[in-house]
Amino acid sequence: MNKSDRSRPIPAWPEDEPSSNVRPAPTPLYFDQELGVWVLTSYSDTYAALHDPVLWPSSTKKDKQPQPIDSESHGQIREKTRKSLSAQKIKQWESDLSIEADAAAAALSTHETVDLLSSYAIPICRSLAETVTSVSHEEALLLSQAAQVVSASAAEPYDPDLNMHAKHADQILKEHFKSRPEGLGDGTFVAITQTIPCLLANVWFALTQAPSQWKLLHKCPDLVEFSVDELIRCGGFLRVLGRHATADTRIANVHIRKGEKLVLRLAAAHRDPERYSCPNELIVNRAIKGILSFGAGDHSCVGAGLIRMVLATVTAPLTAKFSTIELARPVVWRGGSTFRSPESLWVRLNEL
After folding, report:
1. How far apart are CA 161 and CA 172, in angstroms?
2. Per residue in 89-124, pLDDT tens?
3. Going from the N-terminus, what domains does the chain have, and what CATH number goes with each?
């Protein structure tokens, strides 16, 4: 296929980059003629779209047609996954994860720079994935290679080479986990070994840019769990979500026709001054509700509870042990139109 035949990628929107010095400004809902999608940037419009029952998850690609929907099967899968990732099970996993994170944080050096991804987040999350999905350490090491390819393709779905390699990697994972219960298979393995470490890196990068907030977490350990949604909001990990209309609907008095696609710019919506005071500041003791990263309603992320638990449990030992954090090397970003994250996060950690 010639390059000119491919659907044009979603614009980079550089202001949505986690590292951007120019923050996004929400605009009224508009239709992008070239991309063939409605673009939503305000919190209120994005919130309405996520809660609209006729708007279903979809690729944001202009020429990719949505798959037929079996709402009954969709609901059954969600219910099975919810049971597999129940609050009770998450609490059990949290206990073991807390012990491991405490030990790993205690082993981090204050005498030299450390990469918080390779030295801390990735091995801890891989160990959790072994527990949750019942795979051996050796299996997890091998499967993580395939999971990394799948994750890279999800981050940039407009790269045809990544897509090609991801199909093969996805088959490897599905074959391995085909006998596992819903919620404890390939999707969960990819999320824990790849997506969560990327999210953690974004959150910790945001904290390096707000040293006073790290110090506050150090002084007030109970704030870590309280601040999870604010950390996710400012981490800016998930940049966009795609939706398509299964029936005519209206968002902000704009008529959305059946079959039309929407791009929800979460990075912009999470910086909407109509929703958040001082939207560009990370304020760990800010009481917020309704962050958009996990979706809503019938299409919300059933793993949200697990993700929140891991973020709090793995971050808490760092902020408790170390009084300050600072970047030791410039961050190189990876990913694309869907999400971006640091390739590594080299930092200096200091104790009082």
Report:
1. 17
2. 999 999 999 999 999 999 998 889 999 999 999 999
3. 3-350 (1.10.630.10)
